Amino acid sequence: MNNEQIISILNKKLNLKEIYITGDSNHIKIIAIGDIFKGNSQVKRQQIIYAPLIDIITEKKIHALSITTYTIDEWKKTKKKQSD
């Protein structure tokens, strides 16, 4: 399972504005941005990302995931802080 395939799965199932994936099948880091996360706890946000990937996780095509999620406004604030 490569990163482009994971991006494709997430884009088909979720309404995300942006998604960034780094790493390999041993450890994948996902940064997902979208208003789909508004009003959701961190646990619920991770569940949103896990749901479309659960089959490939249980098939051990992905070993470990690190997930960071942002709403569009949170992402803008984060990017602004990084550029300051």
UniProtKB/TrEMBL annotation:
This is BolA family transcriptional regulator. It comes from the Bacteria. The lineage of its organism: Bacteria, Pseudomonadati, Pseudomonadota, Gammaproteobacteria, Enterobacterales. It holds the Pfam family BolA. InterPro entries: BolA, BolA-like_sf, BolA/IbaG_stress_morph_reg. Belongs to the BolA/IbaG family. Transmembrane segments: none annotated.
